[in-house]
Amino acid sequence: MDLNSNRKTKLAARTGLDRIADILQIERESLTAFMFLVPLFVFLAVLIFIPVLGTFWDSLTRDVAFLPKKFIGTANYRALIADAAFWQSVRFTLLFVFVSVPLEVLMGLAIALVLNETFPGRGFLRAAVLIPWAIPAAVSGRVFELIYHYSYGAANYLVRILDLSEGPVNWLGTDLGSFAGVVLADAWKTTPFAALILLAGLSSINPDLYKQAQIDRANFLQRFLYVTIPLLKPVLVVTLLFRTVMALRVFDVIYVLTGGGPGGATTPLSLFAYRYFSSADFGYGAAASVLLFVCALLLSVLYVKAGRFQESLQ
Amino acid sequence: MSEENFKKILLALGIALTALFCLGPFAYMMLTAFSRYPDFLLPDQPYSATLENFRIIVFSESVHFLEYLRNSIVISAVSSVVAVGLASPAAYAIARLPLPGKAAILFGTLGVSMFPPISLISYLFKLMSALNWINTYMALILPYVAWTMPISLWILVSYFSQVPRELDQSARIDGAGRLQILIKIILPVSAPGVYSTALLAFIFAFNEFIFALMLTIDASARTIPVGIALFEGLHGQIPWGQIMAAAAVASLPVVLATLVFQRRIVQGLTRGAVKE
Description:
The complex is a heterodimer of chains A (314) and B (276).
Chain A: H1 2-12, H2 16-24, H3 28-58, E1 61-62, E2 70-71, H4 75-81, H5 84-115, H6 122-134, H7 137-147, H8 154-161, H9 175-203, H10 207-215, H11 220-248, H12 252-257, H13 269-278, H14 282-313
Helix pairs in contact in A: 2-3, 3-14, 4-14, 5-9, 5-11, 6-9, 7-9, 9-11, 11-14, 13-14
Chain B: H1 3-33, H2 52-59, H3 65-96, H4 102-112, H5 118-130, H6 137-160, H7 165-173, H8 178-189, H9 191-207, H10 210-215, H11 224-229, H12 240-260, H13 262-271
Helix pairs in contact in B: 1-12, 2-12, 3-6, 3-9, 4-6, 6-9, 7-8, 9-13
């Protein structure tokens, strides 16, 4: 009898959603779950997915101001391949990734190893590491612009007091100087993030393993090579991939610091595409950004896979 | 030299270098902001402290500094509240409700959040132009919400999963609906996590550059990073003191928030990458 009355109240409380759930033959709860996800899907679809697809479509058109939009197939891509400035930008982007990412991860690892020790003032240092991360990249770009100032910047101050060079260095005026300049400015901003992730990885290593290694008379270099590195490997892989995806899209700090110069020597693909967008040549800019998108997507898939692999380990 | 001593020296060196690397440029920014002349590092140039740079950026209307700051704070605050508000039900659904393909949704949103912004700004520009929203708060709030939702979702899922299931089960027995459980139980219980998620979303929105560069034109919606990036001064000479003063004030809210909520921010940031 009890069961029966329960069923009756349930029937009475049926709503439209229940009926939809019935029609779709899914659990009522799953339908609620789906409804809870709708805002997320709508935002991602309208503001991320559709724009990306739109950019794909634009890349197949002649889409410049004051002319009617026209489908031109792969003409933009063919023009890109013949464009020396595009290749210069590709070369810079790849070089930037290959130099800055390992540098950032290595420095991040060094900082993480320091922060993982116990010493007075550790809390202060941990907080200090977050400061470069918290400052907007465009702002830190401006700070580094002043640091590299030819006549009175801090970089040439160090060069002078340490007597490193005959005269002041023209940091942002030469290809090599500007490359080093943007790598260092980017490293300042992004190393802390790598350090934090690696620190979380380090602190999850069981301290007993180190004690055991000490009993086995492993010195601290051996402990680092044979305990820390193998156990940190999954986290290292994730950090490397994540930083690679982020370095591929570098924009803010370079836009502010060198504007892509001198002579296009530090123009990442994002900035190359942005220049065409800001002069209202949407088709050509779109083609360049589609190429960047494809590279980033492939790496993101790897990153997500690496993350899942790590998850399955635990 | 014993191994123990060697390690101690290495550690001391590491501490010094880390502090120098992280704080050096920040200290240089502050010193320049408070200096009467930006060339105080030249030989024989005394350092003369002043508040003049701050006075100019605050009171000189042609600089528009306060407008940029207000735009940034309003846009980032609204974006972060909306992003967390909309990501919460999604996170609750993933943490608690029966749903096929949860992992696909989580990793799919993670993948989406890694798209390079350049591959969508031209279309966003067209969309906002068509809606006549270029140079308005809406032009930035909507993309910022979309952009910060995936990370908010990830962090919230991990916080919500930690709430004991008994709490929502007993509420179910009392006849509460799912939305009620989310609002009355899950959110209050994981409030610290929700606040830190909102704080992270705020910082991401506050620091964002390329959307703001493309979708705003002048002080009516331009944000502080773009304002500082394009700050050139009126008389040819780049006013470094004023730029650094603006940079110092712009960094202040995020740096303070980061220092105060240090532990939570680190937790939030590393949640996605490293499982505890």
